[in-house]
What we know:
Structural class: alpha+beta
Low-confidence stretches: 1-13, 60-68
Strand order of the largest sheet: 1-3-4-5-2
Oligomer: single chain
Amino acid sequence: LHLMLECNNTHLQRQKLIRLSFSLKFFCSTCFVFFIKSKENVANNCYSAAYLLKQCKYYAISLRIFAAMSYTILQVRKGKEQSIFRKHPWIFSGALFTDTKEIEDGEIVEVQDYKGRFLALGHFQNATIAVRILSFEEDKIDKAFFQKKIRQALDARIKIGLLSKENTIFRVCHGEGDGLPGLVIDFYNGVAVVQCHSIGMHRSLPEISSALQKAFGKDLIAIYSKSADTLPKRLETADAYIFGSCETPHEALENGVKYKIDWVLGQKTGFFIDQRDNRLLLGNYSKGKKVLAEG
């Protein structure tokens, strides 16, 4: 049992754990009755019975651990697993076989094929896109998971030079491209603006905030959550700082040019970062020229 609890939480191992736990319960219960009824060597029998009761306690604990490790299971219809094999990060509601009426929006679910085989883990939402896949492996979706994903995303940006003395504006996380569907994070000279496009990501804000603080360290001034307009209206939420604070507009650099960013009043996360190359191109064309004639 100890070895089973130490091993990775795979579907096969969880099934073995269940069978092992129930076998242990049956064994302990049977032996307990046998020892109590036996009239020989009462002291040893009582000791053995107490020991077996202790094993039953371990059994109960093991089931609690198992329950904590597992997620609600959703099965897809036969043939609908093919897109998941191709690593498509979305599962549409029509592909699901399982009744989802009792599943909460934002809940982490385990997706299985029609035979009960593991496919993926993701955030469930009662919408056309029913599951946004977080992992195609049997991971544990916790603080460490988000720390790893955001660290990888940040390292990729640093590697291509998006964070430098001349550039303090860039997108840290771009949803599916970074393995975190439904999550956008933009960085403006010490301030991370987070925008959630799924209830699951919104429920994961504490883990996301912790991951950003660990990744940026002292370079992070504040984290602003701006998701009121991107989440379903049934989820009442407001834009607000979830870590630190910063006055707006806030100065940040893009290719050496200063911009004043206002994520509170500005559209989306406050700035159209995807137009970086166009702004640079326009700057090269207009260098040394007068754009507007003097009046």
